[in-house]
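Researcher: I'd like a candidate sequence for this fold, 256 residues long. If you have to choose between options at a position, lean toward the conservative one.
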C-alpha cells in the first residue's frame, strides 16, 4: 500500500517547541525571535509506502534534510535480491534523496510503520535561520554523526553469528532510545513484524520467528502485547563481548 502525504493544518512547525536541542542552540535572550523563524514544513505520513518525491519540490528546491518528529520511518536498501533496513525515529535527521552516483546497483524505498509518522522538512527557511544562529547547524551535524554511528553498530550487529544474538542486539539498541525500565525488565515500545525484524538483522523471516520463539522460551525477550516487547534485564550478557546494558532511567510503577 502506498502512503499519501498530508500537510497538517499549520503548514510550518516551530522547531524550538518540539526539539529541545534546537532550543538549546539559541541564546536565551533571542528565543522569542528564533521561535518565529526556526521552522520546517510539517507533514503527516500515514502507515504504508512513502515516496519522498511527494514532498512536491523540484530537483533544485527540495529540502536538504528531513527531521522525524513522531513515529517510525523505515529505510530499505535493495541489493542483489536482498533487502536491508534501518529504523528512523523521533529526533533522527536524514536525506531521502540520492546525494551522488554509485557504481553499486542498489535501490532504495521508504515506508512508515505503526500508526503513522510526523516529519518536518528542513528547507531554505531553516538555512536562513541557521545563518543567524549557526549552532543550529551544529545540532544537525551531531544528528548526522549519530546516524553514522548507528549504521556502524548495525553492521556489527548483522555480523553476529547467531540470529538470536542479532535480535537481542537490535532490541537493546532500540531500548537505548525508547526503553522503559520496570521491575520485570526493559519494555521496548515499537511495532515490528517478524519480516521487518529480519530485514533489520539480515535474516530470513522464518529464521527470525524461530529465534524469537527461542528467546521467549529462555525469557530473554518476549512480546507482551501489540507494539511492546519485554527484554530481561540481564539478557545483554548473551551478546558477544559482554559489556554493560544501555544507561536507562528507571520509571516508577514498572515498564508495562
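Model: Candidate sequence:
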Amino acid at each position: 500500500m502506498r502512503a499519501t502525504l498530508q500537510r497538517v493544518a499549520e503548514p510550518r512547525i516551530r522547531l524550538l517547541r518540539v526539539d529541545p536541542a534546537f532550543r538549546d542552540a539559541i541564546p536565551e535572550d533571542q528565543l522569542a525571535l528564533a521561535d518565529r523563524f526556526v521552522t520546517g514544513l510539517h507533514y503527516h505520513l500515514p502507515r504504508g509506502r512513502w515516496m519522498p518525491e511527494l514532498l512536491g519540490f523540484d530537483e533544485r528546491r527540495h529540502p536538504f534534510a528531513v527531521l522525524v518528529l513522531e513515529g517510525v520511518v523505515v529505510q530499505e536498501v535493495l541489493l542483489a535480491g536482498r533487502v536491508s533496513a534501518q529504523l528512523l525515529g523521533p529526533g533522527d535527521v536524514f536525506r531521502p534523496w540520492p546525494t551522488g552516483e554509485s557504481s553499486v546497483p542498489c535501490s532504495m524505498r521508504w515506508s512508515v510503520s505503526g500508526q503513522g509518522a510526523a516529519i518536518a522538512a528542513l528547507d531554505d527557511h531553516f538555512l536562513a535561520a541557521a545563518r543567524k544562529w549557526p549552532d543550529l547547524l551544529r545540532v544537525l551535524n551531531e544528528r548526522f554523526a549519530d546516524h553514522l554511528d548507528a549504521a556502524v553498530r548495525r553492521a556489527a550487529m548483522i555480523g553476529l553469528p547467531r540470529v538470536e544474538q542479532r535480535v537481542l542486539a537490535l532490541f537493546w539498541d532500540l531500548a537505548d532510545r525508547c526503553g522503559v525500565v520496570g521491575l520485570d525488565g526493559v519494555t521496548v515500545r515499537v511495532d515490528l513484524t517478524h519480516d521487518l525484524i529480519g530485514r533489520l538483522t539480515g535474516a530470513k523471516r522464518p529464521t527470525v520467528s524461530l529465534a524469537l520463539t527461542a528467546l521467549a522460551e529462555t525469557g530473554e525477550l518476549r512480546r507482551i502485547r501489540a507494539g511492546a516487547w519485554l527484554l530481561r534485564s540481564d539478557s545483554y550478557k548473551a551478546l558477544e563481548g559482554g559489556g554493560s546494558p544501555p544507561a536507562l532511567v528507571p520509571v516508577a510503577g514498572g515498564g508495562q
